[in-house]
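hey can u check if this looks right to u? its 72 residues, i copy pasted from the old doc so theres a chance i mangled smth
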Amino acid sequence: SYFNLLPFLMAAVTILSTWVAGRKAEEASNSTLALFGMAALFFFLFYSFPAAMVLYWTSSNFFQLMQQVFYD
């Protein structure tokens, strides 16, 4: 048994990115709920994946979040 921190970080960044994108979109109710569900699904799916894949997904979502915050 082990504790894997990266999936928690990945889920937090994905949820934050979804929340920021939902705040800026007009029709955010259904798509935002689906993206929150996807973040939860990816958390459980990626928990046992290698760290490189989770780090790739986390960094991709982080850069998307920075783009949404600074350029939109």
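The longest helix spans residues 51-71.
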